[in-house]
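Minutes, project check-in
Item: structure for the 162-residue chain
Input as provided by the requester:
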Amino acid sequence: MSDESRDKAVKRRLNEYRNTKRDIVSKLTQNLAVIPDDLENCKIQFDLLTDVSEKYSELLNSVELLNEDDWSEANCTSELGAAMRVLENARLEIISSSRRIEKRLKGSEKESPVQQSFLADLPSLSFGQLFRLGLFFSLPLIISVVVSAIIISIAYAVTVLG
């Protein structure tokens, strides 16, 4: 290997190092910027799940305390009404809590900027990778144009020569 080709290889490697370092520093800086927000979201989720867990424990205790064997025939109707209210309140709380949890978890997934889109990574791709991506996305269009041109030329040849 000549000195000139070795120098070119070293320069190319140095440029690759600088570009990679710049990309890594940029990504680390971006990710460090969103970590406090993610921590806050986790704390809010933790608090929500803790509250729901405590509420579910209370509801479970109140439902388990219901015992229809203790009801007398004289007060069966009033006891049944009270028991049904306890069960209905428990059911409504389960639905409400499930919605709050689902909303909070889906909301935090949407808000997380750490999950970057494909377009954010485009600058770090090499020319060959970008070329293959372009070919992949435009190949169906190219094939359609070529096939259409062939069909039109065959139709023209048949009408002119036919």
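Outcome recorded: Residues 3-64 form the longest helix (62 residues).
No further action items on this chain.
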